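quick one, two chains, predict together pls
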Amino acid sequence: MSNDNVSPASSQKPRAIVLLSGGLDSTTCLAWAQARYECFALSFSYGQRHSSELDAARALAKRAGVEHRIIDIDLRQLGGSALTDDSIDVPEDQSDELPGSIPVTYVPARNTIFLSYALAAAEVINASAIVIGINAVDYSGYPDCRPDYIDAFAKMAALATRAGVEGNPITIETPLLQLTKAAIIQLGLEHGVDYSQTISCYQADVNGYACGRCDSCRLRRQGFLDAGVKDPTLYQAATNQD
Amino acid sequence: MSNDNVSPASSQKPRAIVLLSGGLDSTTCLAWAQARYECFALSFSYGQRHSSELDAARALAKRAGVEHRIIDIDLRQLGGSALTDDSIDVPEDQSDELPGSIPVTYVPARNTIFLSYALAAAEVINASAIVIGINAVDYSGYPDCRPDYIDAFAKMAALATRAGVEGNPITIETPLLQLTKAAIIQLGLEHGVDYSQTISCYQADVNGYACGRCDSCRLRRQGFLDAGVKDPTLYQAATNQD
């Protein structure tokens, strides 16, 4: 990522690194951020089972006209989550987990690793913000999706970086933090997001069709229902409930 | 990294992830940590120019009898430092940099990325600590080598992880934080470290011979002088000053 890829004169907006997974939330974030920042998208190939998500991220960044980097990190080397460890099954329904317990789809320290790379990228291109689609409503079981966590990361980041030392700490923007899925969808539609291009499913097929059964699919489907908007998700034939 | 690679019954000591670069400081940390913890070493292949450091880390971990993982991360994709960006020269003498300025060998957010991976690894194996050879005496110019930074990372980590949520936050141990290079060498010698096996040079050759001229070599050489100990470093012929 080069500091002079984009001439400062090309935009009056401050720069931001936007974490883009290719899912509904991060795509909404990108659209929101483009109204405020000159955006650079960052995705991670982290041994996730659903690589079609990265194809979606690539296409979405291209459509948005933003520079995009995919960073290859192998969390499989560490294991410990149903999303990266083949020996742990992805549950189709996590609603029977104990209230307050951490879901098996939680990936240890994932957001911390992602935000750390974003911090490095932000320093290199002199970005003033990192935008991440963390949500504390639907993902209250994940420790690293809570507001206190984000505040603590921002404090650490201010001490960790050249920008912070020089008095201009890089901020962590979480526009979706307290929004319901329906409100996120409304926000995205206001910013022109085409949700048929986004993939949320934990086990989408190679063409990006969603299973319709996993926790992420359930939350997403309910979001469109609650928002009173037709669900444009491409479901695998057997589970297409449109 | 498997949670049951080592049976809990095999050791009464709590577990720790030790960040091991193969240099003088981290090797001292590993020796220190082995007296207190059941240790698991973690190294990073991050596009550093001196890959002989990783060979040293491999050999040192083997000699110490600890499980060792090398995580491949490509900071070159992000650029921004003389240590990872071929377009920036490694200075032979940084002493003419402005006091309080950040050296060009600073790698953006490097320690934050390393500690984030260590945090993930610690969660997976139920380690109670991460040990890192950060030093605030010789590296005061690096924002992410300061005590305040480590404190902030630990606070963030407590909020980020399952262990933290469950009331047993993973601690960040920095046994070298306030030690001079001479004191670090003394500590290592007390724990049986063979410093001829460690590599500190920013531009060591493929056989691990040090340049003797870069900032890291200067600090190291002075450390042995101040400790009153013969410098066992293998220098490239032209600069061998023994």
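Strands of chain A lie at 15-19, 38-45, 67-72, 129-131, 171-173.
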